[in-house]
Automatic annotation (TrEMBL):
Residue ranges of domain SGNH hydrolase-type esterase in the record: 7-197
Transmembrane segments: none
Protein name, entry field: Lipolytic enzyme, G-D-S-L
InterPro entries per record: SGNH_hydro, SGNH_hydro_sf
Pfam (any one): Lipase_GDSL_2
Source organism of the structure: Pararhodobacter aggregans
Length: 209
């Protein structure tokens, strides 16, 4: 059985659009895109996603534990062997408080790829492949608008950089923004329809040759 590990933030975790801050909610299985994609493919699934996760920053506003680099190392040490890894991060790195532009966002994701594709993790799992997913661009909307001031331009600029990064690393790539849009409620999170569309796109890319 093929095993897929999906690594990401709230849009991989399945957080619905936020209207009230501080209220935890999550879409059930059958709505979340990782569960839909795995079911379509008939694969085993490991969901490893945390709302607020970044590719590279310790976030003092969120307990200082959101850096994806140690989290990915722990996930790859905890689970396996896996056959495919999806990475979809960068949304939270675009928050105003980090002051990062698109090239720095891409650099953080490059660091995750260095870890995943390095000899240690590849040997541990007997080799696995990576699908790099550029997240859906954000908008300044609703209760999250202040945190993401200036982020729309950064997030729109990220996909071409990640496409180039994937090409140079010989990885499969998907631009999620070509298949889904963020909810107008908060400008960050996906609707059930967005999850369904993204799941179809991911399953399609993973099933190619």
């Amino acid at each position: 059985m093929t095993t897929l590990l999906t690594f990401g933030d709230s849009n991989t975790h399945g957080t619905p659009p936020i209207e009230t801050r501080g209220l935890y909610r999550r879409y059930p299985p059958g709505i979340r895109w990782p569960t839909l994609a795995a079911a379509t493919l008939g694969w085993d699934l490991v969901e490893e996603a945390l709302p607020g996760r970044t590719a590279q920053f310790d976030d003092p506003v969120m307990d200082g534990i959101m850096n994806g680099w140690p989290a990915l190392r722990q996930a790859l040490q905890s689970h396996g062997p896996i056959d495919w890894l999806t990475i979809m991060l960068g949304t939270n790195d675009s928050k105003t408080r980090f002051g990062a532009e698109a090239p720095q966002l891409a650099a953080g994701i490059a660091g995750l790829l260095d870890l995943a594709l390095g000899d240690e993790m590849q040997t541990r799992h007997g080799g696995f492949r990576v699908l790099l997913i550029a997240p859906v661009p954000v908008e300044e909307r609703g209760v999250l608008a202040g945190e993401f001031f200036g982020a729309p331009a950064k997030s729109r600029a990220l996909a071409p950089l990640l496409a180039g990064l994937a090409r140079h690393r010989g990885l499969r790539f998907l631009d999620a923004g070509q298949h889904a849009t963020v909810s107008p409620v908060d400008g960050v999170h996906l609707t059930p329809e967005g999850h369904e569309a993204l799941a179809k796109a991911v399953a399609g890319r993973l099933s190619e040759g």
